[in-house]
Amino acid sequence: MREANQLVGKTLGELARHIRPGVTTLQLNQIADMYIRDHGAVPAFLGYQGFPKSLCTSVNEQVVHGVPSAQTVLKDGDIISIDCGTVLNGFVGDSAYTFCVGEVSKEIRRLLRTTKEALYEGIRQATVGHRTGDIGNAVQSYCETRGYSVVRELVGHGCGRKMHEDPEVPNYGRRGCGPLLRSGMCICIEPMINQGSKNVALEKDGWTVRTKDRKCSAHFEHCIALRPEGPMILSSFDYVEETTGKEI
């Protein structure tokens, strides 16, 4: 699981080299597909429940599941959430990162920074004996007290030999509620946080989920393993931050 997830992190780091105004999301998809295959794995998303591409590329108000396209050209000031998955030696890696394209506003950087920080707040609650509601409550409280909203329709999940396994891991909830977290579980925690309303809509392509009010949304995801001594982060943002030379 760690090897599959580290490859996702390396793929996101490779993509960071190419994210700039004028690049299409289809070009990013092609770069990722080749990189994953060159490293002995296959893209986990391609063909999953019929999904047509190897990456999910969601721009600005798109929350998740954006389909790469030659018509979607990145512009200065955009943000793009890239969700990436690999299958390596029979195990799945899954992680997401929201990138800035060129120079973005302070307000958007604050949204991204808060969403990323909320991910780590959730991870701190992912300890053996806690419940999924402890994770969700930590994410929800952190974001809502800062003026943002939490998407309800989409959640984190267990991960292993399949992309989506039990338990579901919502980004909202009450402490002490939900499935019990046990040693040996691998779960993906992935806050999807909106600048405006929490309400979302499905685009006509049948995949892309966007905010109803068309305000921006951010998405960060780590895959973690639950161990008696605490959560182990299997994926990595280090490769992205080494490439960009900075955190958000």
Q: How much helicity do the residues have?
A: 25-40%
Name the beta content range.
25-35%
Overall mean pLDDT stands at 97
Spatial ordering of strands, largest sheet: 8-7-9-14-15
Question: Key terms for this structure?
Answer:
globular; 4-stranded antiparallel beta sheet; 248 residues
Task: Explain what this protein looks like in three dimensions.
The model has no long low-confidence stretch (mean pLDDT about 95). The longest helix is centred in the middle third of the chain and has 19 residues, at about 105-125. With about 250 residues, the protein is α+β, with helices and mostly antiparallel strands. The chain has a five-stranded antiparallel sheet with strand order 8-7-9-14-15. Strands 1, 2, 4 and 5 form a four-stranded antiparallel sheet that branches. The chain has a three-stranded antiparallel sheet with strand order 3-12-11, with no helix packed on it. The protein has five helices and 15 strands.
List the helices and strands and how they pair.
Elements: H1 2-16, H2 25-38, E1 42-43, E2 55-59, E3 62-64, E4 79-88, E5 91-100, H3 106-124, H4 132-144, E6 149-150, E7 156-158, E8 165-169, E9 186-189, E10 192-194, E11 200-202, E12 209-211, E13 217-219, E14 222-227, E15 230-233, H5 238-244
